[in-house]
Amino acid sequence: MYKISGVHHVAIGVASLEKMKAFYQGVLACNKVFAEFPQVEHEAMSELLRTSGIVFSAILCSQEAGGIIFELAQMATPAPRAIRRDFRYGDIGVAKTTIAVSDLERFYGEQKGRINFLSRPKSVKIPKWGSYNFVYGKDPEGNLIELVSGDSLPARNGFGGARWVGVSVTDLERSMSFYRKHFRLDKVIIDVHESFSGLVDEVSGGHRTGVLSCLLANSQGDGMVELFEVTRPRGRSIPFATRWGDFGYLQLCFNCDNVEEMAAYCEKEGLDFLTHLKVFNDERAGAF
Fold first, then answer.
1. Domain count, the chain
2. Per-residue model confidence as pLDDT tens digits over 124-163
3. Using CA atoms, how far apart are residues 58 and 73, in angstroms rounded to an integer?
């Protein structure tokens, strides 16, 4: 049976790769570069986008502290567009990335001229977790980023890495079952709670926002997933005709030791595919 060891990277479609690289590397210290892709045709993505001549450039980078990798991708052909005019906490799908810092108040004070923070830092007690200090901001293209600190979130030299990706869902119980079964998120780090309710109005666009949330991990690896359901106001659906490369959060990618085996399993389980299995037999030596 295939093994999954947590989230490998989160992909963000960007309008300006250079501007976003400057922010993620210069402000968020994602200076560890794993790969850069020049602006050329990428045939492997043709099936996903249901057209030929797919041209984009991208970079995969992370903080020195490790954690989830950011993939910043700028599509050239076909012409991309914004997924939304504005991004809100609770929009269905991949919605945010959470980055640990050693001292949130200090970070906020030092970076409030460089990051568009949506409030001052806040604190809450989460059952069986403890103190959780957080603040939301937006990157230069409006994507939500959560900065956090606390006793359960060690961070050295300022940053502790991108610790988890937040996925907004319509039914938390159903989504927990799906991710635990198929993506082997067998460890519940934070069980279902409502501690964020009433504390995220600045990012949800609502009043007295209701939130159910949990944090899941794989016991064999790093890179966690926060599943959350905004019960008031309800989250907005993914816009019709959104495609890979449009501006905003696009996908999360899991580490898997045998993608071919996982694809066979998913087919047997009746899960929908957007592409057939892609295997690289060159220097990339991978599959998706």
1. 1
2. 999 989 999 999 999 999 999 999 999 889 887 789 999 9
3. 4
Q: Which amino acid is at 187?
A: K
In-domain check, residue 267: no
**Domain-located, residue 209:** yes
* Range list of H helices, 33-186: 46-49, 104-111, 172-182
How far apart, in whole angstroms, are the C-alpha atoms of residue 33 and residue 154? 23
Q: How far is it, in rounded angstroms, from Cα 174 to Cα 170?
A: 9
Across 81-158, where does the E strand assignment appear? 93-101, 116-117, 122-126, 130-138, 144-149
β 66-77/122-126 pair status: unpaired
- Which CATH number goes with the domain that contains 204? 3.10.180.10
- Spatial contact of 104 and 133, defined as CB atoms under 8 Å apart: yes
* In a domain? residue 268: no
